[in-house]
């Protein structure tokens, strides 16, 4: 097989359904949480017929959904880096940045343009405190979480969600540099382990009583990303039989359910809930990455959300605000609340699909082609069967 055919085969990225399911669950938790927040802010009671704990755990897991996504993201970026360049120490820093720019920047810039127009037009739910210029600068330099801390989180939803992008992209700004310096030895593992240890402290002691900073701080999210990175690094060395993988998947899923539904109240006081949730997520990742089982047909809607998670995440607040205004205009009917949740999820997914298909994916391909991506060029994928294929980074 010649170099060109090897490169083409390596670029035929096969999706891993289990990874998409995790991302789909993460974005679903975010969607449900943001609809619930509109209802709470508007002081609209609902769900009296349901157990309070069940309802509360189902619709208040948006923050934990982001933590799941952080763990998946760390795994995806690290495993695709290994696949592209063979070893972490061989990563081409410039190419890594260009690839991230092609994937992240087009939609982010488009979103900021739309939000700027809405702010200048003084559209309800889109006016930023402190001035548009400072918000744009914070978003483009991945300092949105610092701005949220300064304003105690009082930002419109479309701007607020950018805090997670600030955490993620700050991590990935340093990631290729650290890999070049430390990727050959154990110091990289030690650094990732340090970030994991610091995560609970960032959500408690380092937050200094600030609820906003406890949620949006850099270190408070990087422990999950670091766990995902470690999972990708260690996965080629882990070999389980069928029963072992099943046990890993079931155990990881049970840990996730335990934290999402029960343990976060206890573990949260020590800042451990997010760390344990990320650990459970990584256990599931180990199993699904090695088995590559297709998801059941009943999970197809969640898979669909997961495949468009970035686009859905950045655009879903347009749907949330729009549908909630319609809900208010019709007199806030209690019977319409289930439909509000369901229709929001569906329309947010459709909007994400349209944005991905007609804008972000074409722009991603165009930029990569313009910068010369191909076999033996920028981001060419190393055809290494010993490395796990992680898709959608």
Secondary structure: elements and pairs:
Layout: H1 3-11, H2 17-41, H3 52-59, H4 62-85, H5 93-120, H6 132-140, H7 144-150, H8 157-160, H9 162-182, H10 187-203, H11 211-216, H12 218-234, H13 242-267, H14 273-291, H15 300-307, H16 309-329, H17 337-370
How would you describe this structure to a colleague?
The structure is a single chain. This protein has 393 residues and is an all-alpha fold. The protein has a domain at 3-17 and 62-299 and 355-370. Helices cover 72% and strands 0% of the residues. The longest helix has 34 residues, at 337-370. The chain is globular.
Silhouette: globular
Q: pLDDT average, as an integer? A: 89
Poorly predicted runs of 5 or more residues: 1-13, 380-393
User: How would a textbook summarize the main sheet?
Assistant: none
Q: Work out the number of β strands.
A: 0
Alpha plus pi helix count = 17
- Taking all Cα atoms into account, the compactness measure Rg is 21 Å
Structural class: mainly alpha
Give the topology string: H per helix, E per strand: HHHHHHHHHHHHHHHHH
Beta-strand portion reads under 5%
Q: How much helix is in the residues?
A: over 70%
How do you describe this structure in short?
With 393 residues, this protein is mainly alpha-helical.
Labels describing this entry:
single chain; 393 residues; mainly alpha; 17 helices; 72% helix
């Amino acid at each position: 097989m010649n170099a060109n055919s090897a490169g083409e085969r390596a670029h035929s990225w096969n999706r891993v359904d289990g990874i998409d399911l995790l991302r789909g669950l993460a974005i679903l938790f975010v969607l449900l949480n943001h609809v619930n927040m509109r209802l709470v802010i508007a002081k609209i009671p609902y769900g009296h017929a349901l157990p309070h704990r069940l309802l509360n755990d189902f619709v208040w897991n948006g923050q934990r959904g982001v933590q799941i996504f952080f763990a998946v993201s760390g795994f995806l970026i690290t495993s695709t880096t290994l696949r592209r360049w063979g070893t972490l120490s061989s990563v081409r820093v410039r190419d890594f940045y260009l690839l991230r720019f092609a994937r992240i920047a087009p939609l982010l810039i488009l979103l900021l343009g739309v939000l700027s127009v809405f702010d200048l037009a003084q559209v309800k739910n889109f006016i930023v405190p402190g001035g548009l210029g400072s918000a744009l600068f914070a978003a483009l330099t991945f300092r949105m979480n610092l701005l949220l801390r300064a304003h105690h989180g009082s930002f419109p939803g479309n701007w607020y969600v950018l805090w997670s992008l600030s955490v993620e992209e700050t991590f990935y700004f340093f990631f290729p540099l650290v890999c070049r310096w430390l990727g050959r030895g154990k110091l990289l593992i030690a650094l990732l382990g340090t970030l994991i240890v610091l995560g609970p402290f960032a959500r408690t002691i380092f937050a200094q009583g600030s609820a906003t900073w406890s949620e949006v701080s850099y270190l408070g999210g990087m422990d999950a990303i670091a766990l995902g990175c470690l999972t990708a690094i260690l996965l080629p060395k882990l070999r389980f039989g069928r029963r072992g993988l099943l046990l890993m998947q079931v155990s990881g899923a049970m840990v996730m359910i335990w934290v999402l539904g029960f343990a976060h109240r206890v573990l949260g006081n020590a800042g451990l809930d997010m760390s344990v949730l990320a650990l459970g997520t990584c256990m599931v990742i180990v199993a699904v990455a090695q088995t590559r089982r297709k998801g059941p047909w009943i999970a197809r809607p969640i898979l669909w959300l997961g495949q468009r998670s970035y686009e859905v995440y950045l655009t879903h607040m347009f749907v949330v605000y729009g549908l909630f205004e319609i809900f208010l205009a019709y007199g806030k009917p209690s019977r319409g609340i289930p439909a509000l949740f369901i229709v929001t999820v569906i329309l947010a997914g459709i909007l994400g699909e349209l944005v991905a298909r007609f804008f972000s994916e074409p722009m991603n391909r165009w930029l990569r082609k313009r910068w010369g991506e191909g076999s033996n060029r920028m981001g060419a994928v190393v055809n290494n069967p010993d490395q796990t294929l992680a898709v959608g980074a």
